[in-house]
Amino acid sequence: MAGYRTRVDPRRIRRLRKGSPGEGPVVYWMSRDQRVRDNWALLYAQDVALAANRPLEVVFCLSRDFMGAPMRHYDFMLRGLTETAAELSKLNVSFRIPLGKPEEKLPLYAKERDPAVLVTDFSPLRHQKGWIESVYESLSCPIDQVDGHNVVPAWETSDKREYAARTIRPKLHRKFQEFLTPFPEMKRHPYGDRETDRVPSTEELRLDGSVLPVEGESPGSAAGELRLRSFIARGLSGYDRDRNDPNLDGTSGLSPYIHFGQISAQTVVREAFLADLPGSDAFVEEAMVRRELAENFCLYEPLYDRYKALPEWGRKALDNHRSDERPWLYGLSELEEAGTHDELWNAAQLSLLRKGRIHGYLRMYWGKMLLLWSPSPEEAFLRALYLNDRYALDGRDPNGYTGVAWCIGGLHDRPWPKRPVFGSVRSMALSGCARKFDVKRYIELFVP
Ligand code: FO1
């Protein structure tokens, strides 16, 4: 609770530091939620600025080497930010883009601007915590954090690590409808004269061009909203039936837009829930329960991207079968180049390389096979994270860390009957896929 009159539910706001207001504008340090519409952190920052008769400024610290992300991801992100910059400008809200490491640039920027209040959005990942700590020393103004990424604010859902969807689901279902509200509109800001920095191009940033942008992607809030509308109109009703068939375009494809915060997960969940179609429940389970379980895992497990964070029972099972014979063993480059004996797995890897996406059901098969074909479970874990973060448009996300931990070590899953190599970690096999969908047809999509 931050004490300012605001349209934003106070339970979404965490005061990180009381401090004393500066003389400058209210500053929203944008990172996770890179949009103007349906952005609780931005709405809150505007309410505080209106109450204090101050200008409103948004700052996005653009680091050219964020966790090794290649050009593919920056292209998606920067094209979305270009749209956001234009929308902020129309609202007479400044948009500043200091280039460099946020932990260095944000304190310098904040010192110069002397914010009345600094508003941040929410990420459970350690780099954002580090960035906030770095700015903590150099600021004396209040710092308020707003969770606009989750339907139910992560700290409101649970104050501890949840162990499965079945433990977090009732906590979310109890609260989500009171949080699943529509969003107020941003107002044209009456104070100050906005300054809008130009969003640099990928060329100017001299990025790692080894993973090129995905052809045919249209990033940004408007495209994300269009995709949501067409999914609600055409995909949602059959979602529960089609979602496990990679040959149909049955999933929403919204995860890169949600990862970069170009659209609001709350808006996605709300539209699907209100549509009240046969696929609504299954979709809300994915877009809210599973996704916010992932946020919960990363929030309360500091080692979310380390093998040792896998459940004890899973690591033990894999350890007991460490010396089982691997039917196939591949080096990282053979996997990366989709050069295995398994045409279905190769097709999934080609989908990742070319489209920056793997269909949800196949993503599990793709991850499970890495366990089978790697020299050790630890190596399989590292390879899954590396390939997912390097090629998947929604990489470097709590969903990805959680998905890899589910595949390799049974996070949020339970023990299954023992299998070689897997032990009691759930196994998957080509035969299982063939029972679910036309494998040959999928392969031909990628391997003519
Ligand atoms: N967030 C930032 O604030 N600054 C960046 O330069 C930045 C680059 C970036 C590149 C790839 C990618 O997948 C995400 C990136 N993000 C960046 C967003 C970041 O992952 C999240 O929005 C939050 O910072 C916390 O997860």
Automatic annotation (TrEMBL):
GO terms for molecular function: deoxyribodipyrimidine photo-lyase activity. Residues 24-154 form the Photolyase/cryptochrome alpha/beta domain. Its EC number is 4.1.99.3. It catalyses: cyclobutadipyrimidine (in DNA) = 2 pyrimidine residues (in DNA). Pfam families: DNA_photolyase. Its cofactor is FAD. It comes from the Bacteria. Gene3D superfamilies: 1.25.40.80, DNA Cyclobutane Dipyrimidine Photolyase, subunit A, domain 3, HUPs. Keywords: DNA damage, DNA repair, DNA-binding, FAD, Flavoprotein, Lyase. InterPro entries: Crypto/Photolyase_FAD-like_sf (IPR036134), Crypto/Photolyase_N_sf (IPR036155), DNA_photolyase_2 (IPR008148), DNA_photolyase_2_CS (IPR032673), DNA_photolyase_N (IPR006050), Photolyase_Class-2 (IPR052219), Rossmann-like_a/b/a_fold (IPR014729). Belongs to the DNA photolyase class-2 family. This is Deoxyribodipyrimidine photo-lyase. It comes from Dethiosulfovibrio marinus. The gene is phrB.
